[in-house]
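Feature request disguised as a bug: please show the residue count (108) next to HTH cro/C1-type domain-containing protein in the output. Example input:
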Amino acid sequence: MPRQISYRWRLRELMAARGMFTVAELMPHLAERGITLSSSQVHRLVSGTPERLSLPVLATLCDILDCTPADLIATSAQNLPARRAVGEEAPIDLSARRPKRVRLTPES
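Example output, currently without the count:
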């Protein structure tokens, strides 16, 4: 059965829990650990959900926030309904194919 995987980026929540509310507060912590990102890159990291993230940046964020990658990235998975294979017939609903009976009434 196919599964749909989703995730939620929780950087902003973890920053707030540790008293950091702006990008400017996070940037010096990144710099002292050797991660040089522009303020716009850090802003996108904090305000959005990254599609790609290097492991050194992830490890540094975990060190700064004293957390694990699982704390930063909340994942969930759910089963999807099975899809029909190409050429596979769908079950036939005979009631939809059977004609409706006509009721005749005499003319007045």
